[in-house]
């Protein structure tokens, strides 16, 4: 039975969707909880075991409008694991969804993309939405 | 003792203070103050870049206090018992320039470490700060529970439009009171 997890967002934690059957992971909203490591523990755990399996293809859609520095560190670690899986011959696509005037998240996406060697990293800018609280 | 509310109100007005928070720091509190800050930046019709910078410095200052404040407050909500670090946060503005101040009691053992880091960050320009952030994020142990100690201060320096000002005042008993002052410009 393929694993499926959906977590609704709160003020400081994002919406999370894990759809193992379709090889799909999505984050949306904001992430600045004081203890993001604990919040993302289940996701990181699932991701590690999924990426080390014979999964064929995987898509990660990241539509976070704001995240703090602790989250940045976690995201990069997840992306590096995805990149390793891509280097091992799997198809891995990252869609970095960002508002066109959200400079901080755009810059961060550019820096993450620089660190990737094997996976496909798409920067997808969407029309400005001034209400960043979503 | 009753606080003179009129005096307090006038002081806030005179010093152009929008938000003051003093007390234990925990996730729900950060969300609440954050919502107030978001309302203020929406009202001021700032660019997303400036409002995000203000919010980001606020979050990292709160996180920094969570990590370094050596003064704790125990509170008991029945289902939840916590030992929360205490701190003071102030946000002020004048002509769309924003001032974010944080204050907390810090152990003297940490003073030198924080001082050296801030002095170093203040020597870097924006491009160097971005590079330094990238280097640090890779250097830190991914499994650490340290909450990204070094990164928060770099993030603050990246968003500030002037060097980070700070002071350490002796607080007795091996402790100091640490104040951090960050400016973010409205016309950036």
Describe the structure using short key phrases.
heterodimer, A: 134 residues, alpha/beta, Transcription Regulator spoIIAA, six-stranded mixed β-sheet, 6 strands, 35% helix, globular, B: 188 residues, alpha+beta, Heat Shock Protein 90, six-stranded antiparallel β-sheet, 6 helices, 30% strand
Helix and strand topology:
The complex is a heterodimer of chains A (134) and B (188).
Chain A: E1 4-7, E2 15-19, E3 24-31, H1 36-39, H2 41-51, E4 57-67, H3 69-87, E5 91-99, H4 103-115, E6 120-126
Parallel strand pairs in A: 3-4, 4-5, 5-6
Antiparallel strand pairs in A: 1-2, 2-3
Chain B: H1 5-14, E1 17-24, H2 27-43, H3 48-68, E2 72-76, E3 81-94, E4 97-107, H4 108-121, H5 126-139, H6 149-159, E5 165-172, E6 175-185
Antiparallel strand pairs in B: 1-3, 2-3, 3-4, 4-6, 5-6
Describe this entry's structure for a reader.
The complex is a heterodimer of chains A (134) and B (188). Chain A is α/β, with parallel strands linked by helices and 134 residues long. Chain A has four helices and six strands, in the order E-E-E-H-H-E-H-E-H-E. Chain A has a six-stranded mixed β-sheet with strand order 1-2-3-4-5-6, with helices on one face. In chain A, a hairpin with a 7-residue loop joins strand 1 and strand 2. In chain A, helix 2 runs parallel beside helix 3. Chain A is globular. The mean pLDDT of chain A is 93. With 188 residues, chain B is an alpha+beta fold. In chain B, strands 1, 2, 3, 4, 5 and 6 form a six-stranded antiparallel β-sheet that branches. In chain B, strand 2 (72-76) and strand 3 form a beta hairpin. In chain B, helix 2 runs antiparallel to helix 3 and helix 3 runs antiparallel to helix 6 (149-159). The mean pLDDT of chain B is 89.
């Amino acid at each position: 039975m393929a694993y499926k997890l959906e977590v609704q967002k709160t003020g400081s934690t994002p919406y999370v969707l894990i759809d193992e059957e379709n090889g799909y992971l999505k984050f949306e909203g904001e992430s600045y909880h004081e203890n993001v490591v604990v919040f993302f523990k289940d996701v990181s755990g699932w991701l590690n075991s999924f990426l080390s399996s014979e999964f064929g293809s995987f898509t990660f859609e990241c539509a976070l409008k704001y995240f703090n520095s602790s989250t940045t560190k976690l995201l990069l670690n997840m992306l590096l694991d995805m990149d390793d899986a891509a280097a091992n011959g799997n198809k891995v696509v990252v869609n970095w969804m960002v508002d066109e005037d959200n400079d901080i998240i755009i810059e961060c996406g550019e820096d993450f993309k620089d660190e990737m060697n094997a996976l496909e990293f798409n920067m997808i800018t969407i029309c400005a939405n001034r209400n960043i609280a979503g | 003792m009753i606080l003179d509310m009129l005096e307090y109100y006038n002081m806030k007005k005179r010093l152009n203070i929008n938000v003051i928070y003093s007390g234990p720091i925990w996730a729900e509190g950060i969300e609440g103050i954050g919502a107030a800050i978001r309302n203020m930046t929406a009202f001021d019709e700032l660019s997303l870049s400036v409002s995000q910078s203000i919010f980001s410095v606020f979050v990292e200052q709160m996180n920094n206090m969570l990590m370094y404040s050596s003064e704790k407050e125990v509170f008991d909500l029945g289902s939840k018992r916590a030992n929360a670090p205490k701190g003071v946060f102030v946000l002020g503005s004048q002509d769309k320039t924003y001032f974010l101040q944080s204050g907390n009691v810090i152990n003297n053992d940490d003073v030198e470490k924080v001082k050296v880091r801030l002095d170093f960050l203040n020597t870097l320009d924006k491009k160097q700060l971005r590079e330094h952030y990238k280097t640090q994020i890779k250097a830190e142990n991914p499994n650490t529970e340290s909450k990204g100690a070094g990164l928060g201060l770099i993030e603050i320096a990246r968003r500030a439009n002037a060097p980070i000002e700070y002071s350490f005042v002796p607080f007795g008993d091996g402790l100091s009171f640490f104040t951090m002052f960050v400016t973010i410009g409205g016309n950036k």
